[in-house]
# Entry
Amino acid sequence: MLVVGAGPAGLVAGLTLARYGISVLVIDKRDGVPALSRSLVVSTRGMELMRRWGLEDAVRAGAPEVVPRAWVTPDLACGEGAEMSLGYPSDEEAAAVSPSRPAWAPQDHHEPILLAYLRRIGCPLGQGFEACLHASSFLSRFSPSCRLRRAASGEQPRAAAISLWGRSLP
Ligand SMILES: Cc1cc2nc3c(=O)[nH]c(=O)nc-3n(C[C@H](O)[C@H](O)[C@H](O)COP(=O)(O)OP(=O)(O)OC[C@H]3O[C@@H](n4cnc5c(N)ncnc54)[C@H](O)[C@@H]3O)c2cc1C
# Structure
């Protein structure tokens, strides 16, 4: 199984598949850790997965103990604004349904933890490889195919054409 993208979604997909014993290759056109922290909060369900994989303490170690709320303000310097819910349960609400709770653990903290775990369980990772869908076959009724190329040079490694299993377009 090919998982394209080693952000939080791809890493969790790859880890889930690998832990079910499915042979999986995770690739990312990026080569290295992310420079930008984008997603900020790991949800209750996300933290349940971290707990199942023994990563909860490591993820929480980089998460300040804050209540995830938004603040809407016209100007960061004015000191005025309105608090807004981000939709996450409070610790008490989470405790009623889960052994875990959300964590304010930004992507540049939790992504390297997931990457290290992926490597630890022996799942292959192709960093610096970009997947390109073959447009002509994608638009046809046949299963699309996908080629891998090195993101930096555009070079195509040998035997890098992969048939994707998927639903044909109507
Ligand atoms: C400036 C900014 C701020 C954000 N702030 C927040 C926030 O505060 N909270 C929040 O929840 N979300 C935020 N987001 C959205 C955030 O991007 C997502 O929540 C989170 O990163 C999604 O994770 P993901 O794994 O789906 O995607 P990503 O983290 O974007 O990972 C996708 C990966 O796929 C790789 N990729 C893409 N195409 C290919 C290809 N063809 N071949 C190989 N690799 C490929 C990319 O290099 C990337 O590493 C923000 C986004 C941006 C841009």
